[in-house]
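Sequence design from tokenized structure. All designs in this work follow the same two-part layout: the structure record, then the generated sequence. An example of the structure record is given first.
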């Protein structure tokens, strides 16, 4: 635009110079004519010749004044056009600066055929002017097509880690500052186990003197939860999670000490509010291409649910002294019965086109003193101090974007559970356990505020639930 303005100014100056030259040439021609006419005066009537010359000179002067007025009018029109062009250029520059400040860099990058995460080291987060010099499109023209960042694309200047399809309990992307997220979820878990206990002694491997305790346990647990997250800053969020638990157990067994030859089914169920949890998360660093993001978190678990010591146990007398009866609870608990504190760290490592992620955490269960158990018949059994084992957890996975709406994740989670102690002594039958699960998840963005997340877990160790299905729908307000 500046080049065009300079060109027009040069053209105007040339026109003015041409007019001045034309006037000079006219005056020179007029002088020559005056000289030739003066020569002719000597032979003709002097007064007639002078009047003729004055008339011709007056006509030529008026004609030259008219030409000068037309040229001045043209120059004024060109000056007006130049001033209008300068005003339009200033307005376009203001619109350009406003657009750069108002429109998110990620949205602009998407309009240029890709999210800013995929641009690599040469990606630009600024809008490019159009070839014809017109101002860029208005912010609402590009913002309407904005989409969440797909998995596996690394930001150039954004400080937030990339999103992945969640398969673990801890999310990897924090809630933006001032935003509120409500996440309803549903989890279905099923597990079964079989146990055969030989109570007696054998004379030879094929002959048993005593009883056989054969049990098959099938547990179905359904948990509906409502999580609420709020972004305190761009790097910190707070979360509260309220679960509602419904559990059912079928125990198929032959009671010991009875000599029964038939199987009996003992069923129990329970439902109610589970243990409410509160979590705080903080992003420690600014990651980037080939640089990991680290998010630390601290989770506190209450004991609002009905704990295992509050339900009635099926024992005719005290279960420790006499195991007559099944020894199983008549109702299932909905909580663990212990306060717990769990610090942990989540890491994400973008490596286009995938994102690697994982968790490391340690859950400490606070011991309880003066614990009593309810036994059938209204008897209270004092258990004293009970300290359940702490849990060490490690998980790793990878996420891959299929398109701008869908992504998949896969991973593995393993937990190490310590032994349970009563009054400082290890409880009989308690041992260290290892829980391992293979996880597969998917995510699909329904719209700008809602996303559907699905996760499937398959147990690979004996103590792990056989299958776990989790569905989440985070809604951004």
């Amino acid at each position: 635009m500046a080049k065009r303005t300079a060109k027009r100014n040069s053209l105007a100056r040339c026109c003015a110079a041409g007019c001045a030259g034309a006037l000079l040439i006219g005056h020179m021609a007029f002088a020559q004519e005056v000289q030739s006419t003066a020569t002719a005066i000597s032979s003709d009537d002097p007064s007639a010749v002078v009047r003729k010359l004055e008339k011709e000179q007056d006509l030529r002067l008026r004609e030259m004044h008219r030409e000068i007025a037309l040229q001045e009018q043209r120059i004024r029109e060109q000056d007006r056009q130049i001033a209008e062009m300068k005003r339009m250029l200033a307005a376009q520059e203001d619109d350009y600066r406003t657009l750069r400040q108002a429109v998110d860099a990620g949205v602009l990058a998407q309009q240029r055929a890709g999210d800013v995460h995929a641009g690599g080291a040469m990606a630009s987060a600024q809008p490019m002017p159009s070839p014809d010099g017109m101002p860029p499109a208005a912010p609402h023209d590009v913002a309407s097509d904005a989409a969440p960042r797909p998995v596996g694309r690394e930001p150039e200047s954004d400080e937030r880690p990339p999103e992945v399809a969640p398969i673990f309990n801890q999310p990897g992307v924090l809630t933006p500052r001032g935003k509120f997220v409500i996440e309803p979820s549903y989890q279905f878990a099923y597990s079964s186990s079989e146990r055969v206990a030989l109570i007696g002694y054998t004379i030879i491997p094929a002959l048993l003197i005593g009883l056989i305790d054969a049990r098959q346990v099938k547990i179905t647990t359904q948990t509906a939860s409502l999580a609420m997250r709020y972004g305190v800053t761009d790097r910190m969020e707070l979360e509260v999670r309220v679960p509602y638990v419904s559990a059912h157990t079928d125990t198929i067994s032959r009671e010991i000490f009875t000599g029964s030859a038939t199987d009996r089914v003992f069923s129990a169920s329970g439902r109610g509010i589970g243990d409410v949890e509160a979590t705080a998360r903080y992003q420690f660093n600014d990651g980037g291409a080939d640089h990991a993001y680290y998010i630390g978190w601290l989770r506190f678990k209450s004991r609002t649910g009905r704990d295992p010591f509050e339900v009635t146990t099926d024992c005719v007398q005290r279960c420790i002294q006499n195991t007559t009866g099944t020894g199983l609870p008549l109702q299932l608990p909905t909580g663990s019965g212990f306060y717990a504190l769990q610090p942990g760290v989540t890491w994400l490592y973008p490596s286009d086109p995938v994102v690697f992620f994982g968790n490391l955490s340690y859950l400490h269960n606070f011991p309880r003193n003066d614990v009593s158990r309810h036994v059938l018949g209204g008897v209270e059994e004092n258990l004293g101090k009970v300290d359940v084992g702490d849990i060490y957890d490690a998980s790793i996975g990878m996420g891959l974007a299929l398109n701008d709406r869908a992504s998949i994740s896969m991973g593995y989670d393993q937990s190490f559970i310590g032994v349970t102690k009563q009054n400082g002594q290890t409880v009989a039958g308690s041992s260290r356990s290892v829980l391992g699960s293979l996880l597969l998840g998917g995510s699909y963005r329904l719209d700008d505020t809602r996303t559907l997340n699905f996760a499937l877990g398959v147990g690979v160790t004996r103590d792990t639930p056989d299958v776990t299905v989790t569905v989440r729908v985070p809604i951004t307000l």
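The first strand starts at residue 180 and ends at 204. We note this feature because it recurs in several other targets discussed in the main text.
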